[in-house]
Amino acid sequence: MHMTGTILAGGENTRIPLLKGYIEINGKRIIDSSVSLMRNIFDRVVISTNMPELYFYCGAPMIGDIVKQRGPLTGIFSVLSGTGADAIFVSACDMPFIKPELIKHIVNKYTSGLKEWDAAIPVFEGKPQPLLGVYSRKILGAIEKRLKKEQRGLRDMLTDLHVLYIKEDEVRAIDPDGRSFVNINTMKDYERVISVSV
Length: 198
Known about the structure:
Radius of gyration: 16 Å
Oligomer: single chain
CATH topology: Spore Coat Polysaccharide Biosynthesis Protein SpsA, Chain A
Order of helices and strands: EEEHEEHEHEEEHHEHH
CATH class: Alpha Beta
Number of domains: 1
CATH superfamily: Spore Coat Polysaccharide Biosynthesis Protein SpsA, Chain A
CATH architecture: Alpha-Beta Complex
Low-confidence stretches: none
Helix content: 25-40%
Structural class: alpha/beta
Number of strands: 10
Mean pLDDT: 89
Shape: globular
């Protein structure tokens, strides 16, 4: 199976006056840490972005949105369409503490199952965490239908799919505090992350 590591960096940054991928945690930009992390796990890593000039220096292929709607669903659709990968592993560019062991666990569960899944998504605090998971090429049609109806919710789309949910106790065995799911959407998030990152 050909799986591509994918970093979603197409966010509009409407709630924070900083470019999220450029935020530095312990002296390193989140986007740089994410690219490095993904390269240690996947043979191919791409960045989903509509601002390629910001990420050329990362040395990773970049894919822009192929439909006009913004949001992670569009990024996933564009990368699945553009790479030809059987599946992609997705993370967001504003998640600074992703544990590689958790990525590997999600991927292993997806690839070693007897069933063919549309996606593999971890559960934390009782909720699916769709910005850290595997998406199959088979879901292109389902995404396209939703985008045509301007339904952009990633979590909502999971109800249409055959999803392997990674149980919360498995997730907590690897990442007890759920640090992998911490993301920076607001200045309050940023200040909280900065205060505990060292």
